[in-house]
Structures are given as C-alpha cells and as structure tokens.
C-alpha cells in the first residue's frame, strides 16, 4: 500500500521545486559552487523512520547549523553557569555576523550569532585544535547516527576568507571573552562549519533534539535532557537570525538555519524536520527551506503552541466496588457487607499525561475523597507520561493517606509507569489486573468491617445452598457420602492434570482458582463458603486443567466421583434436583460474569 | 485532608516574602502609591480551580499586561493580515518605551512594546473612544470571568503624565501607522492600562489563554484558537521586555509583565500562573514575580520545552482475533474457520495523543499490514487528543483501505474522539465495546470465508450437542416433544418480563441476548446453531430478565416448560443426562468467559 506521509512530503517537494527566488551565499567561494537548485526535504519520526524527498543524500556544509550543537557540547563540558558568564541568551535583532557585543553585558548576545558561536567553540574541552575539533566531529556524528567528516576544501575556503570572523575573534579576545589566541578558536570554528552533512543527517540530528537528546535509532544518550531543553530554548528565540519572531509565529518550531542552505527544525517529543535548498533570502535563510517548513507546520499542525483542546482531568472515571464489584465469589454474608460498606473502596481510572497539571487534578480529587475511604485503587493503565514532580506529589499523598489509614494500590501491568519509591518496603501494592486489585480492595473492606461476625465466612454443611431445603432423607443420603477435607493457607486443593476428586462443597474459604497460560499465572475466580467447585470435572469425569489453592483455612465436603455414580443409579430424582440447582447456579453465575463485562473495567 | 499544591504555593510565597530588592515604578504618580511589599501568587488549573497565596484579591493596574489582550482583540476585529501590515512580531532587544520604529519596515517591532501596543489599540473596532474602550473592557472581563472596571485616578495620572507615549503616538501618526488622531488612540490606551485586576483575575486570564481561548469556568469561547496561538507565540518571544531570552531559557512559559507589578504566565493546554509584587527589576519586571515563576517552573517542570520522554508509538498493542476472540458463542465449524482465517482481522489499540506524529505511526503500521487483512478494529478508547490533520490522514487511509476491500471499524464509546466524516454514509462503523467490534470482525471473516459451506451455520436437530449420541428411544422422547420456532432478522425471541417458554435448542442462528441497564442497551452474548438458550429460566421457572432477538433467519426447537416437568417425572434418567450435559456446558462456557477476561481487552 502507498505511504500517506511520503505522498505528502513528495507533494510539498513538487509544489516548491518551481520556487527559484533568492541566491546562493557567495562570501565563501566554496559555497558558491553548489547547484543552486538542489532541494531535499526529510522528516524523521521519534522511532527513527525517515521520510525523504529529493536530493536527501547530497552532501553540503553544515555551516551555522553547527552552532546549537557546539553550544550543547560547551554546556556539557563546562556547565550552564560557566557558559553563561561568556555568552547570553537574548535575541539580538541584528545580523548574525555583526562585529559587536552587547553594550551593557559586553558579551555576545546569544550563541546563534557568530560572536556567540565562536565563544562556544572556545569552551569545548581539548588541548589542541585537532583534539577539540575531533570531539566536536564525534559529537555531531552521534546526533546524526553516522560518522560525519570534514570537507577540506570548504575549510580551506573558510580559512582563507574568514576575516570578518577573525575581527569578531579579536574583539572577543579584547573583551576577555576568549581566553586563548583567536586563531586557535577559529581553527576549530572554521572546521566545525565545514563538516559535511546531508538532509537526512539533519533530520535525525533534529529528531535527537526532539527526543530529549537520545538518538531515535541507536538509543545513544547524546546530550543531557536539561541541556537539550536549554539548546531548544535558545533555538526558539535566536535560531532563525533576525527573522526569529516571524518564524516563531508562523512555523513555531525551534530551528536553526545555515548559509549552506540547510534548515533543521524540531518538534519536541515528536519529530525532526530538515530541508536543504541553497538559495537564501535576505536574512540568510533558505527560501525553499522557510517555505517548506511554514507549509508543513501549517498542514500538519506542528506549531508548538498548538493545543487542540485543553488538558482534560487526568481522572477519566471514578467508581466504588458496589458499582464495579470484583469477580470473586462471595458468600451471601460477604456480599451483604460489601453492599453496605463498598462505597469506602474507590477505583480511580487515570489517563493521559500525568505531568504537573494532570497530577494536580488527581491529587485534588484523592485528598477531597480520602476521608470517606478505606482503600483507593489507582488504575494507571491509561497513563502515558509521568514526570519527576508527579512522583514527588504522589509520594507525599501516599504518606498522607497512610497516616490517615487509607490504603492505596496501583493497577499497572508493566509496574513501571509510576514507581513511587526506590525503597521496596514503602511501595504501594501493585496489581497486573483491575479485577485482582478490586478483589483485594474488597478483602480489605471485609477484613476491616466484618468484625466479630467473621464466622459469616464459614457455614454448616446443611446450610450450603446446594443442599439447603432438601427433604431429610435426601439430605442424609448426600451427607453420609460426603468426605470432609481441610486445608491450610497455601495448600493445593486440586492440581492441573490430576483426575477429578468429586464435587467440592466449600464450607469455609476462600479457594483461589488460577491457570498458567504462556508462563504467566492468571487468577480466574475465588470460591468462598457456600459455593460448589469442580462441577464440570466431576460430572464429565474430566482431568483438572486449572489449579486450586487454599487462601486461608479452608473446609470442604467432597462428594466423590463413585458416590455421584452410585446416586445417579439409585436416586436419579435426587441427582436431578442437584443438577438443576447446579445448572441454575452456573447460568446465574455466567450471566453475572457476562454482565460484569459490560460494566466499566 | 491538606492540599498538596496549596502547601507548595504557600511555601514559595513564604520563601520569597523576604525578597525586598527592586523598586516600585514611579514614572506615573499613581503607581507609586501602592504598598511595595504586596505579594500574591495564583495558579489556575484548566478546570478553573485557583490556588491562591497572599494578597490575591488586592487590586492593581493591569498596565502592560493589557497588551496581549488588546492585540488579540485587534486580531479578532481586523484579521491577521491587516494587523501584520501595522505591527511586526520580532523581538526588539530594546526598552519597551523606546521612541522608535524598525528602520527597515518602519513599523513597531512587536505588539508588546508601547509603540506596537498603541497601534493595537488603534485597530480595535468602535466609533468613539468610549465605545472602543468599552469593547476592550468587556473583552478583558470575559478572559477574567468577571466584570473588570477602570481605575479613574490611575487613568487621570496616566493621562496627565503620558508624554512619552504621546511622542510615540505622533511618531506612529507621522509614519502612517496610526490612521487617526493619536490623542484618540491614547485615550483608549491610557484607559486600557488603568483597568484594575487582582492576581486571581490574571491567573484565570492566563488559564483562558492556556485553554486555547476558552474560559475554564464559564466555557466562554473568548478568542479563536488560531489567534490565541498567535498571541502566545508573540508573548514567547517578546513578552518579557528585553529579558525575553533569559525568560524563555529559565522559565519557558509564554508570559507578560506589567509595571503595576503583575506577571501572567501560560502553560499551553495546562494552566495559568500569575504573580503580583510591585518592586521591579531593571527590565521593568516584578522581582518576586520573576523569582516565583522561575522557581515554580523548575519545581513543577513546567518549561514548555520539557519533554520527559519521546512520544511513544500511538499503537500500544496489536493482535488478531485468534489471540483475542470475541465472547460470541460459535459453532464448532465457525470456531475452526476462525482459527484458520482469524489472523485476517486485527485489533489495533491506540493511545495517547493522535496529533500528527501519533497519527503517522498508526498510518504507517496500518498501511504496512493492510495487504494481509480483511478487517481492522481501531480501539481508540485510550486516545486523548486528535487534530484536524489526524482526521484528514485517517480519512485518506480509510478510503485506501476501502478500495483494497479492507473494512475498518472503530471502538469508541463516546463516538466523538475521531469522527472521520461529516457525511454519515461514509463513516466507519462505531462500536461502544471492544467485544462487540471483535464479534463483528469475526462475522465479516465468517461471511467472506465460509463460502459454500454456509450451511455449517445450520444443523439438523439430531446433531445438536445437547441430543447427539442419545439412545434412540431417549432421542425420540425429546424430539417428539420439541416445538419448532422460526424467526426473521429483527424478530423478538424472548422479552424481559415474559414467563419462560422452555429450553431453546438453536439449529440456525444467531440470536443476540442483550439487557438494558440504566437506559443503555448492552450486548451480553450471541447464540448460534448448536447452542442451548434459556436453561436457567426454564429449569428454575423464572421470568426472563434479558431480551433475545433474531439476528438473521433463526430456527430453534423449544422443549416447553410442561414437557420438562413431564419428563422429569416420567424419565428422570433422561433429564439427568440432559442436565449433566447442560451443567458441563455451562461450566465450560463460564470457564471460557472467565479466561477471556484474563486476555487483553
């Protein structure tokens, strides 16, 4: 099938090939030799896929697009504070090659004009020009994801004609901004400008900036996330020379252009865009580059101030365990108790980004509700993003809740979205499945509220729903054939692969039934006092294909398979009554489970 | 319980009250009369909740914070293009009250310096000063969500001392930027600067800008979303006078300050922040205001370039209907067929923001997979945001898929997240529930692949699993008592509230069973040829509490309730066999449904 985005990029490319205005930079002889009508557009996604149109593998000099990267390396080598004493971050409103410093601060206005960029080059670590340039070349290469190389003749051309930059260098030395011979710094700077890239490289360099400094293909952490943020901020206000304001309003992507004809633009968290076309406008930006970016940003709604609607509350839904009970089997007494106190266990379904604003809405709701609650179930399966501030906030609220006797648990199959504490002892209980978490919440309510009537959890065999109300002689016929079994917590009741033992009438529970699928154990259901377990296996004489385990002190009366056969032959009326009760119960339970599926989960 | 965010804001307030540097603006006498140590911080959320600390209800003059709002009104009144001919959007790098225009464009550099703001005031519609000012006052009031008023003595003070602004006005008139008597424009401008607000108002005005121009409490659409985006862009580069670059790198929120001591800052899509404290720094920004914003942005990670990790693929998971079958009852033949062709129906679980980058990842995956598919189920319940470009992209892919014979359906209970077409005839089929969509996808596969063996959907009564293999005399005893029923598509089979009709042995299906809960109809299950329906009702003699409807040409053989009673009395062995088969089938089905719950849904 065709590719939608490729078609789109091809369309933009086709529409703009006719654009021939502007002219190629010629203040460096080597720049003037390029084909003025070269044109390429590349869009790199956050998983490293690159859409390419035109001359996307044609090499050209990176020129000023090097500036944010060398600034980044200077920040990494020297730290934010040290770099800030040498170069400001204010938009200049002046041409990029102005031979002047800010009259008040006596520093270059920002690292995107030549004075600031030369200063950045002087701050990169390395004892010699060669060593420093090699660190720069390697650093750029990691952004691109391949080894970039120097164009020697471009460098020679730069070096031969770079008098304006030398003037800037000596001015910087005069004011003590450069702390070395300007010829040394310019040796590095001219080389960095002469590194060759293609449009595809630029799009991946942009995607790395978009990915908080991690290369989308290699996964290489090229730049610290905080420094990456700083570089993007400076590109936002100063990246497009003195057309920055217009660029921000019309395109709205942090960007950098170079006189080689390249433009690199970043949609943070999302994608990298690059265009190469050597004809420049009066600001020194590629004409087709600016037009392509403007068109693509508008069509694809990439403007960084574009918010299609306000963030919704991070709490998508909230309900209690009466609205949404677990699928555990409960005795009638437990069921009644849960109906009375079930509003004290609430499930909060969270979704979207849990950055500050989302976390604030969750925390506000939880602290409002907490006084009325024993248990909080946070279902965070729909959460996309969290931040450090989220974890700090949630940790504080967890401690408040604990102090108030409210237990919070988390539903999160990956157990990674919202790890609240490095200390395992302090962590919230995690569940892989909402039903298990709700069952646990119900158990907490039952434990807290059942109080003295805990004996409600055990029943005499004659009150078991399968037998209650039978005529005395039928009841005796059954009861005399029942074999008592007891189990301690953790004991196996039945094992997958074993033959059927008979019909289990549970008189004290609970028994958990689970199954192992593809190496993972899944909870299926919980059998408590008053339920009957193993019916289908006993009636059909089948091997178990599930495991049942006692979850506490369990008592069961078992009608063994031979007794079933005997009663079927000698007392078919009795067996028919039992089967009718079982079939009604099974279909009722089936109906109940099926209805549970249409309630929120 | 305490409030976490309130505690935090109170803490910032407390920490910064000791800060006494800077001095109150005194170039307008009325400004100098405020208490220099007033201090308030307010944070407004996107649902309109406001956290307030300090003198949050103390009134002060809005001053320059009026500039983005009047600029917004001028844009709304005249349109982007007309306003662009009068005022640029470039950062100026000069003091806000500079009496100069851009030497090249001969226009004010941007609407946040006085020259640009006075120009904006001249562009607001209205025949007289009073009428124009009243429109401005009402416009600001809608942003604040309450009626704002003019401080008359502030206005008189402005008017008396505003010679510098008059100089700017006459300069603008000289260059033809103002098209009216500058005294008229300044009559409006001085009044707009003298509107009184408090810190809480500013935070809600900021929250309205954050909410794409919709007031978070009233829901009033105050400003078009596109113009709102433009205003935020200009605030980003020009809002904080000539400290804009430093503000963008350190705080990273579009903002505007005023000499009255206010600062308003916006986190798009998330929240509005406001600080009031009259002592100003050398740029004219509130000292405590800048320090508060810097601290809050850092602590709460609000910087607009802050991305905690790269956008993940919008496709969270993808599986076929073999991995995740529907809970519809299928005949063995149907089941076998689905095992053979089930990989031709895939479910794609989407999540997060489906803006361009997310939509691109979905479209790339769908077009890659489509050749191997008959049906695509898009489960978009986890999608938070979509954009116009998303809908365009998805519409195109839908048309491509249709042309290739692939049917796409959508799971979206709200039916609003991704409405692809204004034309209902072209819309994709929507389902409120994943199980229903998967069942439909299976039906499409069965219809396409069952081919000539469509008769697999109907069975002779003697092959019905409940009866097959019975001894001839038992089989006859049943079959002679069965009553044939047939239904056309849409016919009611049983109705909630009706008495039981007996046991339905379905020989041609399907019959859909559903239930109405709280006004909404929910699908429970589907009965096809070979299944038995109505067991629990027939055995227990209960009224129906569900509805069953024929979904095609349905044939059933019904064992009426009196015949059940008769056979129970005369042939208990036979009934016991039937009940054993039913109970085994019910528990098998219960087991199957329960297991379905542990598979992805």
Which runs of chain A of at least 5 residues are low in confidence (pLDDT < 50)? none
Helix content of chain A: 40-55%
- The oligomeric status of these chains comes to homodimer
Q: What is the spatial order of strands in the main beta sheet of chain A?
A: 3-2-9-8-7
Shape summary of chain A: elongated
Catalytic activity (chains A, B): L-glutamine + H2O = L-glutamate + NH4(+)
Subunit structure (chains A, B): Homotetramer.
Pfam families (chains A, B): cNMP_binding, Glutaminase
Organism (chains A, B): Nakamurella multipartita (strain ATCC 700099 / DSM 44233 / CIP 104796 / JCM 9543 / NBRC 105858 / Y-104) (Microsphaera multipartita)
What topology does this entry show?
The structure is a homodimer of 601-residue chains.
Chain A: H1 4-16, E1 23-24, E2 40-45, E3 50-54, E4 60-61, H2 66-78, H3 80-84, H4 114-123, H5 129-144, E5 149-150, H6 152-161, H7 163-174, H8 182-193, E6 195-197, H9 199-210, H10 225-238, H11 244-250, E7 255-257, E8 262-267, E9 271-276, E10 279-280, H12 287-300, E11 315-320, H13 332-341, E12 345-354, H14 356-369, E13 375-386, H15 388-403, E14 407-411, E15 429-431, H16 434-449, H17 472-479, E16 483-487, E17 492-494, E18 502-508, E19 511-517, E20 520-527, E21 532-533, H18 535-540, E22 547-550, E23 554-560, H19 561-570, H20 572-598
Parallel strand pairs in A: 12-13, 13-14, 14-15
Antiparallel strand pairs in A: 1-10, 2-3, 2-9, 4-6, 5-6, 7-8, 8-9, 11-12, 16-23, 17-22, 18-21, 18-23, 19-20, 19-22
How would you describe what is shown here?
2 copies of one chain form a homodimer. Chain A is of the alpha+beta class and 601 residues long. The first copy, chain A, is 41% helix and 19% strand. Chain A has 20 helices and 23 strands. In chain A, helix 2 packs across helix 4. Chain A starts with a helix and ends with a helix. The model of chain A has no long low-confidence stretch (mean pLDDT 88). At the A-B interface, helix 10, helix 11, strand 12, helix 14 and strand 13 of A face helix 10, helix 11, strand 10, helix 14 and strand 11 of B.
């Amino acid at each position: 099938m065709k590719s939608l985005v490729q078609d789109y990029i091809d369309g933009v490319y086709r529409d703009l090939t006719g654009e021939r205005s502007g002219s190629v930079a010629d203040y460096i002889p080597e720049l003037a030799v390029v084909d003025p009508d070269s044109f390429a557009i590349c869009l790199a996604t956050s998983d490293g896929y690159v859409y390419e149109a035109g001359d996307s593998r044609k090499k050209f000099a990176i020129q000023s697009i090097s500036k944010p990267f060398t600034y980044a390396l200077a920040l990494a080598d020297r730290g934010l504070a040290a770099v800030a004493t040498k170069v400001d971050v204010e938009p200049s409103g002046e041409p990029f090659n102005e031979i002047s410093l800010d009259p008040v601060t006596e520093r270059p206005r920002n690292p995107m004009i030549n004075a600031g960029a030369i200063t950045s080059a002087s701050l990169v670590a390395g004892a010699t020009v060669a060593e420093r340039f090699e660190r720069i070349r390697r650093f750029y290469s990691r952004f691109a994801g391949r080894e970039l190389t120097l164009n020697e003749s471009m460098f020679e051309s730069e070096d031969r004609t770079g008098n304006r930059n030398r003037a800037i260098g000596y001015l910087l030395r005069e004011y003590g901004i450069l702390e070395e011979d300007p010829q040394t710094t310019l040796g590095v700077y001219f080389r960095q400008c002469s590194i060759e890239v293609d449009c595809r490289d630029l799009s991946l360099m942009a995607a790395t900036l978009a990915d908080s400094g991690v290369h989308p293909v290699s996964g290489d952490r090229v730049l610290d996330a905080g420094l990456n943020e700083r570089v993007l901020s400076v590109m936002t206000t100063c990246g497009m020379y003195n057309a920055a304001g217009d660029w921000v309003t019309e395109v709205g992507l942090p960007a950098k252009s170079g006189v080689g004809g390249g433009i690199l633009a970043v949609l943070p968290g999302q994608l990298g865009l690059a265009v190469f076309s050597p004809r420049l406008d009066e600001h020194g930006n590629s004409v087709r580059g600016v037009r392509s970016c403007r068109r693509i940003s508008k069509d694809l709604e990439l403007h960084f101030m574009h918010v299609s609607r306000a963030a919704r509350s991070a709490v998508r839904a909230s309900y209690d365990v009466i609205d949404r009970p677990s699928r555990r089997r409960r005795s009638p007494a437990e069921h009644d108790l849960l109906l009375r106190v079930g509003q004290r266990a609430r499930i909060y379904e969270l979704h979207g980004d849990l950055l500050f604003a989302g976390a604030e809405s969750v925390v506000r709701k939880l602290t409002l509700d907490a006084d009325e609650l024993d248990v909080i179930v946070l279902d965070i399966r729909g959460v996309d993003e969290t931040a450090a501030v989220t974890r700090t906030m949630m940790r504080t609220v967890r401690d408040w809740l604990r102090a108030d006797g409210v237990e919070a648990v988390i539903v999160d199959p990956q157990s990674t979205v919202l790890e609240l504490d490095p200390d395992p002892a302090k962590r919230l209980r995690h569940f892989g499945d909402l039903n298990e978490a709700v069952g646990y919440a119900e158990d907490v309510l039952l434990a807290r509220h059942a109080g003295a009537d805990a004996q409600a959890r055990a029943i005499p065999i004659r009150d078991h729903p399968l037998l209650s109300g039978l005529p005395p002689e039928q009841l005796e016929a059954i009861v005399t054939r029942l074999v008592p079994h007891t189990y301690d917590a953790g004991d196996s009741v039945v094992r997958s692969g074993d033959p059927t033992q008979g019909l289990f009438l549970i008189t004290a529970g609970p028994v958990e039934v689970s199954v192992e699928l593809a190496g993972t154990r899944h909870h299926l259901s919980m059998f408590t006092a008053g339920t009957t377990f193993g019916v289908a296996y006993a009636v059909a004489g089948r091997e178990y294909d599930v495991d049942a385990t006692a979850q506490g002190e369990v008592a069961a009366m078992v009608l063994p398979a031979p007794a079933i056969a005997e009663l079927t032959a000698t007392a078919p009326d009795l067996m028919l009554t039992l089967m009718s009760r079982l079939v009604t119960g099974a279909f009722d339970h089936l109906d109940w489970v099926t209805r549970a599926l249409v309630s929120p989960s």
